[in-house]
Specification:
Order of helices and strands: H
Strand content: under 5%
Radius of gyration: 37 Å
Length: 69
């Protein structure tokens, strides 16, 4: 200021810009849920087959040898 020269903005060195990859957390949660739900559906399907087989066997035993049609 006392020298009479103009005040200028400071010049900073350019800092390098790094690209950091992000993690798709929502996608990982969704994939985990889909796998767990698939396992659940498989278990329910197996249970339904067992119960259906038992009811089919019980129904055929109750019907006996008599077949009206």
């Amino acid at each position: 200021m006392l020298s009479g020269s103009q005040v200028t903005n400071p010049h900073y060195a350019n800092t390098p810009q790094y690209q950091i990859p992000t993690t798709d957390v929502a996608g990982l949660y969704n994939q985990n849920f889909a796998q767990q739900f698939g396992n659940y559906q498989q278990q329910v399907g197996q249970q339904n087959q067992i119960i259906g087989g038992l009811f089919g066997l019980g129904g055929s035993l109750l019907r006996g040898p008599y077949k009206p049609f």
